[in-house]
Amino acid sequence: MTDMTNYERLKGTTDVSPERALVTGATSGIGRATALRLARRGATLCLIGRNESAASTLREEIEAMGGHALVVLADVSDAGAVERAVHSFAKAYQGIDTVVASAGVAPTGNATETSIEDWKQCISINLDSVFYLARFAMPELIRTRGTFTIISSDAGLWGDSNFAAYIASKHGVHGLMKSLALDYGRYGVRTNAVCPGFVETPMADKLLASLSPEKLEALRKAVPLARFAQPEDVADVVAHLSSDEARHANGLEYRLDGGKTCGHYKP
């Protein structure tokens, strides 16, 4: 395992090595890439997800790197399951330094098209789960002066048609993030949100599957950098925000969208 550089060590964990990091949604996409990125800097991981096979494969990859990972199969929309996952990891490794909330779903449809079930599931997974994670992990982060990083979306910064539930959930996430930053910054806990545009993940693939090649290319060209993000792009930002290099970043909405939300762009 490569030693962590000084700037990547978390302030407040100087007597504890390695860093202890909990990641939800760790079995796919951004969460998976983030778990691998944190493992590469020396963190011991708690991988929370629902796909047992994918979680086991990820744990094997981390262990092959010389790292350590605890797999917890849990539905993050279940408050009790989140509480048990947080407490079991904190007990096993005597604390938590880093929390990354990455679980999410993205149903499509406007208010009249979105089913009640889809609305409830989206709010529960995208917003409620972040609250549960903060509620149960924040006492641990206060003890370690740790970090709480939320994977949000550019959908939390502006509106979009046919994503009523998703847009509402992400705007709620940003309100919660700001409250956490204000309430717990005094204890040295930094809370931030990363706001990507489209990221090439399985979830995005499902959303874009119905588009013609021409429409897909037009979407890419609407980004000033002319490409969608990769999961590793997001993971690198999470690694930065959860490191001492970003020691004064708190309450930040980090726009990782290639310039898409800067304004009207004409390719």
UniProtKB/TrEMBL annotation:
Q: Which SMART domains does the entry mention?
A: PKS_KR (SM00822)
Q: Which reaction equation describes what this protein catalyses? A: 2,5-dichlorocyclohexa-2,5-dien-1,4-diol + NAD(+) = 2,5-dichlorohydroquinone + NADH + H(+)
Q: Which domain of life is it from?
A: Bacteria
- InterPro entries the UniProt entry points to: KR_dom, NAD(P)-bd_dom_sf, SDR, SDR_fam
Pfam families the UniProt entry points to? adh_short_C2
Q: Which CDD domains match?
A: SDR_c
Occurrences of domain Ketoreductase (ranges): 19-161
What family does this belong to?
A: Belongs to the short-chain dehydrogenases/reductases (SDR) family.
Identify this protein by name. Answer: NAD(P)-dependent dehydrogenase (Short-subunit alcohol dehydrogenase family)
Native species: Sphingobium vermicomposti
